[in-house]
Amino acid sequence: MTVSVLVPSSISREAEDKREATRKLGYVARAATIFRADRLVVYPDRDGETGRFDGGFVSTVLRYAATPPYLRNEAWGMRDELEYAGILPPLRAMSQTGSESTGSGSSRQGIVTEVGPEGRVRVNCGLQHPISLNVPPKMAVEEGERVTVRIYSRRPVRAKLVDDPLPGLSIEQTDLQAALGREDAGVRIAASRFGEHLTVGRLETLAGRVQRDGMTVAFGAPERGLPAILGIEESAIEASSGHGDAADNGVEPTADPGFDLWLNTVPDQGSEVVRTEEALFATLAPLSLRE
């Protein structure tokens, strides 16, 4: 089961300064981590970007937030986008790949600090010192590259380099249609206040599908929800969701980039605006419940 979270490049458009934009993105990364998302995808919304905090800024801050603390200095150095990286909340991501007590080891990210002779490399993976490891056959690595290290024991150190995807939250940049078109997209959900209201009964029918197939959930930006980003009439979404005046007035359901449903997870919101980072928590929490 794969969980993907999609946010627009304009997600920080209302931030007054870089500090506030960084703080906001930190909570987006926190929400994705808490609910065990595999991918956090930044899709383009050029018309909604303010210029200061564009998709490059958003992706850089999110990638930094998702980098294990022991690798950050070596992987990123000093960058203008990361001026306020110190205020990012720690993700404290839990391992999802086994534990030392079972003998299967636990996987963690490392960075290659030196490529030596005879197929060996030195890797910084958060232990006291970089460790020397054999490179698996048919696997090529370069200095500065991030790799997956499986740790079996810390004292004495027993570990090996494995040709596996990097553990932890993956940050990607791609367009909305491509993200929705993945083979492992699962249930494709558009989070919007104009969508179908999430009820206990509706959640019960969704839970089984999500557990079996995974899910991809897309969010909009401040003052610029998914309908505005996609150029879709709000009334058409209400009609396709089967509620509101639009449904009664015979408005035609909308065409969209490939969502299975539009969903309102805060159907009786008490605030005029639900911020994107708040919507992530409000949406991923119920959709993560088990049958």
From TrEMBL:
<dbReference type="InterPro" id="IPR003750">
    <property type="entry name" value="Put_MeTrfase-C9orf114-like"/>
</dbReference>
<dbReference type="InterPro" id="IPR012340">
    <property type="entry name" value="NA-bd_OB-fold"/>
</dbReference>
<dbReference type="InterPro" id="IPR029028">
    <property type="entry name" value="Alpha/beta_knot_MTases"/>
</dbReference>
<dbReference type="InterPro" id="IPR029026">
    <property type="entry name" value="tRNA_m1G_MTases_N"/>
</dbReference>
<protein>
    <recommendedName>
        <fullName>DUF171 family protein</fullName>
    </recommendedName>
</protein>
<dbReference type="Pfam" id="PF02598">
    <property type="entry name" value="Methyltrn_RNA_3"/>
</dbReference>
